[in-house]
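Entry, Tuesday afternoon. Goal for today is a structural model of the target with flavin mononucleotide bound, before we commit to ordering more compound. Inputs were pasted exactly as handed over by J.K., no edits. I checked the ligand SMILES twice against the vendor sheet because last time a stereocentre got dropped in transcription.
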Amino acid sequence: MTQQFLDEAKDELQKSLVKKGHPFRYFTLATVGLDKMARLRTVVLRKITQDLKLIFYTDRRSKKIIHITENSKVSLLFYHPKLMLQLKIEGKARIVSDEDVLKTYWNGIQPNSRKDYITQQAPGSSLKSPDTVEYLNEGNHFCIVEIEPFKIEYLKLKRPNHLRVRFSKDDDKWDGEFLVP
Ligand SMILES: Cc1cc2nc3c(=O)[nH]c(=O)nc-3n(C[C@H](O)[C@H](O)[C@H](O)COP(=O)(O)O)c2cc1C
């Protein structure tokens, strides 16, 4: 009975990759490192695999990568205002290290967008002025992160009743249960 809501969630996530302006294209990623302080930021959803792994790109030197190395458990938040649909996803993040995979993805990035991964100084370093960012002539700090969800919470605000469903992954199978919204 809950399967249709998981299908809808998957469907909207997939749509965001092809439909311009879809709000699921961006999500909030939360990490908690050894300092036990939750840190949030917006990232771009780049890909979803058939088994629902979610992929985003970043700079290997960024704080989120330090956090993920310290604690691979992450939370993701998606919100679709028109549908009043919120997805909260919990999962395990993995930093993709396969050089061939990295190269393939890197080759698919527009030259102008590559600048995000080739600053000489690490992201978050202080700058005298925003115009003084220097870029590498060779090499990059491009990094791919893949998140494997183990919990998905679907919440839709609607009349007469809101709808809240929790999906948990057990032995590669998703089980869903309705919750009080
Ligand atoms: C619309 C938008 C999209 C963004 N997409 C990404 C992204 O895909 N990857 C990324 O690393 N940072 C992205 N950022 C920047 C992050 O939100 C964040 O500021 C940065 O990665 C540093 O985060 P950290 O220090 O916690 O690692 C984006 C920011 C905005 C406003």
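The helical segments are 3-16, 63-70, 99-107.
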